[in-house]
From TrEMBL:
Its EC number is 2.4.1.-. It comes from the Eukaryota. It is an enzyme of class 2 (transferase). The keyword Glycosyltransferase applies. Residues 12-250 form the Glycosyltransferase N-terminal domain. InterPro entries: Glyco_transf_N, UDP_glucos_trans, UDP_glycos_trans_CS. Pfam families: Glyco_transf_N, UDPGT. Belongs to the UDP-glycosyltransferase family. GO terms for molecular function: UDP-glycosyltransferase activity. GO terms for biological process: carbohydrate derivative biosynthetic process. This is Glycosyltransferase.
Amino acid sequence: MHISIYSMDKNTLSVLMLPWLSHGHANRYLELAKRLIQERDNISIHFCSTPIILESIRDILNWPPTATSSSSLPAPQSRINLVEIHLPESAELPPHLHTTKHLPSHLITTLSRAFAQSQQSFSQILDIVRPDLLIFDIFQPWAAHLSRERNIPAVVYIGCTVAASLFSHCYFKPGKEFPFPAIRLTNDNRRQKKGPEDDQHVHSVLERVALSWQLSDFVITRSFREVESKYIDYLSTLIGKEVVPTGPLIPDINNVSTGNSQEAESVMKWLDQRKSRSVVFVSFGSEYFMPYKEMEQLAHGLELSGACFIWVARFPKINTEGTEGDSKELLHGLAERVGPERGLVITSWAPQRKILVHRNLGAFLTHCGWSSVIEGMQAGIPMIALPMEWDQPINAQLMVELGIGVEIPQHGLGNFTGQDVAASIKQILQSESGERVRQNAEDLAEVIRNRKDDEIPNLANKIVELVRNVKASVELVRSVKAS
């Protein structure tokens, strides 16, 4: 294995990051990496992931970086070193599928298993890089175990805290009521459990999460106290570890990948020509895909609502259900019926950040992935929740609790109606209650804009302190043994 590592002086603190194999997780880790090296000149980052994910990270970093002539220090991003980890070879999971992006849902477990089987590769990386600290994702306790075998401290980095606190409550206090009634586990979400195999899978995931808490010196969360204070404190109490927020960690809109610039310009020009607060932006991220019957109801709801809309619809790279052609035909039919003045359907990339802050956007219909929720909060745009699985239904409940959105009613696996979709859109765009939601969303965005953003300096201090204490303990043990 060959890993290129830039030269570092003895005072440099080296951090190895290992996110889950999702672009959403990778981007969250990358943004934390950029903030840490901006905060401390002596911190360097080794960012470890599969080649297919690092491909996009290189684009974001504008790799390779160049030093600025005005400073003796290298450009900050030159202290982010990309390290490839290679998963075991598999015909079922070729290298271009070593990411959840466009991955069919039935292969997620296969990907997770393959990642866990890359422990030998990760052990070699640890021995070559020899980091002072590992920052790992919640599904990879095996990475923290390998790190601790080498006296390297480990810290787990999560997204939202409310879901982590609820799932941990269910694991550590089964049968007891969650102390915050606005948040609950319910079967009224699309991905409800269907049988014993699902129960077993969920329990296995929760066991990995609990082990991650145990192996972590403290917990980092992409959150801030203005929205999750009580959940941050409760999680800390549950697991007996300090939970340190990072703040929203939203990249500067000017530093976000532009994708296809001509396509982006076309979308923004279309949006410019609509009326103020009249457009609904519909996006479910790049890793969750709607079955045909659900897309049919969503399309019906958008048409029924009478609102203008931009719908970003994506499909997995491997079409196992044979319905992709039908779905694309459905989208084509919707676009034809409503006409180009009212509806814009996109099946590739869209400039989400720029769309969310546009004056003509009226609502964001989202699956409630945490990054999308945070971006919606910062934009001050009312949200309409149509969550799918895992943390998304809980994120949707938090959004409703904060008064910045509404949730489309669901009753089991994909059981929602076009009428409910239309009613939720009309509630946000046309009713007094929708105006209250809009005001709440704008007020929260103002809070976010006026924040002091002092979490990263605090986190950097805690990282430095942890590494210093661990090194001192290791040296003490060595000296005792030597004597």
